[in-house]
Amino acid sequence: AQSVTQLDSQVPVFEEAPVELRCNYSSSVSVYLFWYVQYPNQGLQLLLKYLSGSTLVKGINGFEAEFNKSQTSFHLRKPSVHISDTAEYFCAVSPRTNAGKSTFGDGTTLTVKP
Amino acid sequence: KAGVTQTPRYLIKTRGQQVTLSCSPISGHRSVSWYQQTPGQGLQFLFEYFSETQRNKGNFPGRFSGRQFSNSRSEMNVSTLELGDSALYLCASSLESGVYGSPLHFGNGTRLTVT
Fold first, then answer.
1. Cβ contact A106–B42 (<8 Å)
2. B48-76 pLDDT per residue, tens
3. Residues of chain B contacting A, Cβ within 8 Å
4. Which of the four pLDDT bands, split at 50, 70 and 90, describes residue A41?
5. Residue A66: strand pairing partners
6. What domains sit in chain A, N to C, each tagged with a CATH number?
7. Residues 6+ apart with CB under 8 A from B9
């Protein structure tokens, strides 16, 4: 079984400041890791994913995440946020041998203030 | 390429009734998953269908069921609705080409309100 813990339920930040959204996971099997973003009244969109290889992955909209196997973490970062980044962000894992079943964290609401 | 389409967008039903939600995946995607999203429970996995077969199932009662058709379109049915079934139901499709790690592509959801 897998579990995902997003350590902050809400993150307020000022425009153009850096931000980090934290995600830890637990799994008895190897997993793929994802970050998704959800804007109001919409479904989720993929930001980035880690499958293998380099532990630093870059995604859309200037976001990046670093996979840390020893700490079982997959934190999301952006060096300078915009008002339009205000949304809910979800970390997710799926087992490599059963990729059809993803487990999501509870989400982090990022609020960017002017 | 058209995205994942869910219909209807909004539904209001009464306790005890049943409801059917529809999902059309992205063309070429053979895997369709369903999730329930609520403020208290977050995103909960319901089930996944692949090539008309249920491949994975979450921890939901038997009142929740689904199916997938030969064109990969999927429907989800909830019988004997309860107030706690009020939620945003999200459908997601993914490409299965033998390469795992295909991300989920979500529709905009169906907002179900049970009164």
1. yes
2. 999 899 988 999 999 999 999 999 999 99
3. 4, 31, 33, 35, 42-43, 45, 48, 50, 55-56, 58, 90, 92, 94, 100-109
4. confident
5. A56, A75
6. 2-113 (2.60.40.10)
7. B108, B109, B110, B111
Question: pLDDT tens across A56-66, in order?
Answer: 999 999 999 99
Please enumerate in sequence order all residues whose Cβ is within 8 A of that of B78, keeping only pairs 6 or more positions apart, or say none: B18, B19, B21, B63, B64, B65, B85, B112
Asked if A103 and B45 come within 8 Å (Cβ–Cβ), the reply is: yes
- Taking contacts as CB-CB distances below 8 angstroms, the residues of chain A near B109 are 42-43
Give the other-Cβ count within 10 Å of A23's Cβ. 25
Within 8 A of A104 by CB-CB distance, chain B residues are: 35, 42-43
Q: Higher pLDDT residue, A110 or B55?
A: A110
Contacts of A25 (CB under 8 A, 6+ apart): A2, A3, A4, A5, A31, A33, A72, A73, A74, A91, A93
Asked if A44's CB is within 8 angstroms of B101's CB, the reply is no
CB pairs A-B closer than 8 Å:
62
Q: For A103, which DSSP code?
A: E
Nearest 5°: the CA angle A98, A101, A107 is 135
